[in-house]
Amino acid sequence: MTNATLRVLLVEDNDDHAELIRRTLDGQPWAPQIIHISDGESALDYLHRRGAWADPDQSPRPHVILLDLRLPRVDGLDVLTSIKQSANLRRIPVVVLTTSSAERDITRAYDAHANSYLVKPFGFEAFRDLMQDVGVYWLTRNTVSPA
Amino acid sequence: MKRSLLSLFQPPFFDDEEQTRIAQTQHLMLRVCLAIAVGAAAINAFLGRSTPTIALLASGAVIFIALLLLYARRLRLSIILLLGLFIALTASLQIIGRGAHDTVTSLYATVIVIGSLLLDRRAFIAMVATILLVIAGIVTAETYGWTNSPYDGEPGDWFDLALILGLTAFAARLLSESLHHSRALARQNAEALKTQAAALRISEERYRILAANLPDSAVLIFDHDLRFVLADGPELAATGYSKEMLEGRLLYEAIPHSFAAQVEGNIRAALSGRRFAAESPYEDRMYQYQYVPLIDDSGQVKYAMVLARNVTEQHRMQAERERLIAELEQKNAELERFTYTASHDLKSPLITIRGFLGYLERDLCEGNTERVQNDIRRIDAAVQKMERLLHDLLELSRIGRLRAAPHYVPFNAIVQDALELLAGRIAERQVRIRVAPDMPVVYGDRDRLVEVVQNLVDNALKFCDNQHAPDVEIGVIRESQEMPIFFVRDNGIGIDPKYHEQIFGLFNKLDPHTEGTGIGLTIVRRIIDVHGGRIWVDSHGSGSGATFYFSLPAAPTPLEEVSYDQRHTQSAPGGG
User: In this predicted model, which residue has the larger pLDDT, B402 or B279?
Assistant: First the structure.
């Protein structure tokens, strides 16, 4: 069912939220491959191809990164900053997906060059619609950088 | 009585100083003359010469009358009477003797000199005129041979005598008046000087009072030789010096060389006209020094003034204020972090619940029992998580208030309580626990401190899972008597130094899959904070174990005073 050519890197420490996101994206015609990582440090290891993800075949580049802000070990903002400061990674769109609607988080995320900032909605329908919009936009409409 | 009788024979005092002085002179003269008259009368009586005796006694009577007049404050009359007596006596002697040519004529000159000193101008002129008239009479008497004088009187004689006596009178009066004038001038000057001195004394006293009463200050004034011209003020005594020890002495004589060398530069700068302030400590106090050049009317720096003010209290208050502001800022930041984290972490389970309720409905319709079960399990877990979070938050918010009044508790008793609460888990994981004996007595809320140890040991147990021989050690480092440092050490997975601060943050977990909400260390830190202590962690990271250190206030009383058992009872909640 999953489209092997479309990949989403989901950095999310809450397993339930990860499951919700996975279920809303699955079953779509453009359903992507979801790489779920639950802490900031591992996310950076994956992206920078370190440790367990040193092999590029094991750590293919995602088309979009869905990033939670509140993460164990390395905070989501630090992950974002590291991505946008890296010449190899900065062109990958990063969509911040968080429960926080705090002004401070929004401005800091954009200051760190987040491509989008989305607040997780409470209701089931709203959550599902948002995830579908994200998938449609970033995986089917958006053109990724060639390199 | 005797004194008041004697005072009858004192010359009178007048409001006018000059008159009093004249009265005194007159008094002296009268008494001398009276003595001479009486004495001479006695000698003449002894020699059997009756006429001179009578004349002298008569003169004595007149002098006595003059004396009485003086006592009756009739000064002018008394003088005129005396001088009149002199003139009459001289004239009599001339008539008896050789008329205008007799040597007694020169007595008129004496009378004129005395008159110039004692009489006012009008009376003096009248007296001189009288004398000239008397002489004219004598010369006339000579001319007609009414005297025993062998000479024939001639108008030329009168003219010569008048000229001589007139000149004498003029010179004497001139002298007398100039004397009078200089005396008046001198008196005026003396008066002025006296007023000036009094004014100066008042002014000096004023600035003395000012210097002596400047609050919390000492005033020091130096001249160009660096000599203390003035040293005063309430703060001077506090430095161990006194006015007497400093004033009039040189800087290097009066105070220790090292201290003098410290301030010399500043005093010289003030003496060169610079005005500035400096602050420096002296002993255990803080002083603010104002260096002020004191400039006289000609614009020259005459002195340097050092105004030293004790600002210890202001400094202490300033520091206290800054500390409170910092504390408040820290509390504010903490509160902001708290609300932010709390709202974020409370939202998460809600999203989960709403999300899976949606899927539950769908899965029920589709009859997918496996998924239904999964949905329900997740919803249930999220509700439980929410409950735990709320419980923990409530716990944390309560720590600000100590549960019970603080007590003296032996730290070993606290550890014992904590280990009892964890007994099941310790046994289950087969962890070896070592506790140092005889740890100090601490001062605090027993239940809270048990919570601290329980949380730290619980953490240690969690992260010792990887070990074959898990080992937890509880002990103390007695670096300071007041704040002993306790520690809980494990040989577990350790904590990377970059996370040493993060682990104390609210709901911060290094591993999202470990049990608990991630509030444990936040609570521990909060309890230690409330007790006035500090907590930190030491670990080199992966596999090297971790040691949590925390300081707590020790019992302020010596341990000998209370026995272990007594302390134990005393530490019971509520104090018994």
Answer: B279
From B257, B288, B310, give the residue that closes a domain: B310
Ranked by mean pLDDT, the top range of A76-90, B430-444, B477-491 is A76-90
What gap in Å lies between CA B392 and CA B379, rounded to an integer? 20
Tell whether the model's pLDDT for residue A147 goes beyond 90: no
Mean pLDDT of B25-31: 87
Does B529 map to a domain? yes
Sorted by sequence, the CB contacts under 8 Å of residue B239 that are 6+ apart come out as B218, B282, B283
Nearest CB partner across the interface for A120, out of B343, B351, B510: B351
Domain contains A116: yes
Range of the domain at B367: 318-397
The structural domain count of chain B equals 4
How many residues are recorded in chain B? 576
Which structure tokens are listed for B93? 């002697």
Evaluate whether residue B423 is within a structural domain. yes
pLDDT band at B344 (very low <50, low <70, confident <90, very high): confident
Q: Can you tell me whether residue B287 is helix, strand or coil?
A: strand
Query: CA-based angle B543:B547:B551, to the nearest 5?
Result: 170
pLDDT tens, residue by residue, B493-540: 888 888 888 888 877 777 767 777 788 898 899 899 888 889 999 988
- B345 vs A contacts (CB less than 8 Å): 70
Contact B350, B386 (CB under 8 A): yes
Q: Which of B310, B343, B358 is the last residue of a domain?
A: B310
Shared-domain flag, residues B299 and B390:
no
Rama region for B273: left / alpha / beta (φ>0; ψ in -120 to 50; rest)? left
Helix (H, G, I), strand (E, B) or coil at B66: helix
Q: What is the CATH number of the domain that holds A57?
A: 3.40.50.2300
User: What is the mean pLDDT of the segment spanning B95-118?
Assistant: 83
Same domain, B428 and B352: no
Q: Tell me the residue range of the domain where A51 lies.
A: 3-141
Question: Taking a contact as any Cβ pair under 8 Å apart, which residues of chain B between 483 and 522 contact chain A?
Answer: 499, 502, 508-513
ipTM value, please give it: 0.89
B350 at A interface, C-beta within 8 A: yes
In a domain, A146, yes or no: no
Contact A120 B347 (CB under 8 A): yes
pLDDT beyond 80 at A101: yes
Contact (CB, 8 A) for B560 and B441: no
Together in a domain, B416 and B559: yes
Flag whether pLDDT at B287 surpasses 60: yes
Q: What percent of chain B has pLDDT over 90?
A: 31
For the segment B478-502, the average pLDDT, to the nearest whole number, is: 86
* Whether residue B556 has pLDDT greater than 90: no
Q: Is A62 a member of any domain?
A: yes
DSSP conformational letter for A136:
I
A19 Cβ under 8 Å from any chain B Cβ: yes
The rounded distance, in Å, linking the Cα atoms of B527 and B410 is 17
